[in-house]
Design a protein that fits this description.
CATH topology of the domain at 14-135 and 176-258: Rossmann fold
CATH superfamily of the domain at 14-135 and 176-258: P-loop containing nucleotide triphosphate hydrolases
Largest sheet: 5 strands, parallel
Strand content: 5-15%
Strand order of the largest sheet: 6-7-3-8-9
Number of helices: 14
CATH class of the domain at 14-135 and 176-258: Alpha Beta
Number of strands: 9
Distance between the termini: 30 Å
Shape: globular
Oligomer: single chain
Length: about 300
């Protein structure tokens, strides 16, 4: 059985079965009441979204977040706009208990929604800023492979690497096509209230990225602040802090595992792709994204 065969397609993108097709088609996210000061992390799944959110949370202590028990998480925009059911009873209770309109500004949010289905025209009008993160898609795929093997005990995964590669290339995985998703968002800039960052840039020099994001948000930080952010958002810290940034039922993932944070390295794809798979990926994915935006990381 192929991965994600229960997904549905809207505007060429594949959505997961707990999304509501009617809400996606009617662009329900357009009706979301954004507030001045909202900051939204956008990215294709497994591009470093969780790490970026945690970095932003560490940068400032006044974010409006979804707070439930010991967890403090960014508002997941899909849950507030596009869901028909929830993958976790705790998530459902979480969303129904913490009303988004009651969360104080500045609210920190996250989403995987493609640019063509997102109300980008409202960003400047509403005083909303987006930070888009991209990552080498080969590493994205490796991260996704392990994520789906753990998530819901592999309910959406065949566990087969060859199948996973083919599904990604053939746009059968959730939120694919990757090229279009990342390409559309990557072409938006500061003039659109969108800041671009890559996972690789964060790994190479997080202090520099933090400084740039602080300037984009017009909220400069001291060197001491930046040092603190770097110390408190390492892979090791995040791997042991799942309950602090995500609310889930205990049976969603195998005990002791953290599907949100694995190795957190650059280039792990080299340990998984065969030469033939890499060459096929280059011809189907690499050539397309380079023609759209050569600044997107690709190996």
């Amino acid at each position: 059985m192929a991965q994600f065969e229960s997904c549905f397609v809207v505007d060429g993108y594949r959505f997961l079965p707990y999304h509501d097709k009617a809400k996606v088609e009617s662009r329900a996210v357009d009706k979301f009441k954004f507030k001045p000061g909202d900051v939204i992390v956008v990215g294709f799944p497994k591009s470093g979204n969780t790490w970026l959110v945690e970095v932003l949370k560490a940068m400032y202590n006044d974010w409006g977040l979804e707070k439930y028990g010991e967890a403090e998480s960014a508002v997941f925009l899909e849950e507030r706009t596009l869901y028909k059911n929830y993958f976790s009873d705790k998530r459902k209770e979480f969303v129904e208990t913490v009303k988004c309109e009651d969360i104080p500004s500045p609210r920190l949010m996250r989403t995987h929604i493609p640019a063509t289905l997102f109300p980008c025209h409202l960003l400047k009008d509403k005083g909303v800023k987006v930070i888009h993160i991209s990552r080498n898609p080969k590493d994205v795929l490796v991260s996704a492979y392990y994520f789906w093997k753990s998530w819901a005990h592999g309910a959406l995964s065949t566990g087969d690497w060859e199948q996973t590669v083919n599904d990604f290339i053939e746009d059968r995985q959730a939120f694919t096509p990757w090229v279009r998703h990342v390409g559309d968002w990557s072409l938006k800039g500061i003039e659109d209230n969108v800041f671009q960052v890559t996972y690789e840039e964060m790994k190479q020099g997080l202090p520099r990225v933090v400084t740039k994001m602080a300037n984009f948000l017009h909220r400069p930080l001291t060197e001491e602040d930046i040092d603190r952010v770097v110390r408190t958002t390492t892979v090791e810290v995040m791997r042991n802090s799942l309950s602090k940034f995500l609310v889930l039922d205990d049976d969603i993932i195998p005990e002791g595992e953290n599907p949100m944070v694995r190795k957190g390295i650059v280039g792990d794809w080299k340990n998984h792709f065969t030469v033939a798979q890499s060459e096929l990926f280059d011809s189907k994915i690499g050539e397309k994204i380079r023609s759209i935006n050569p600044n997107i990381p690709y190996q």
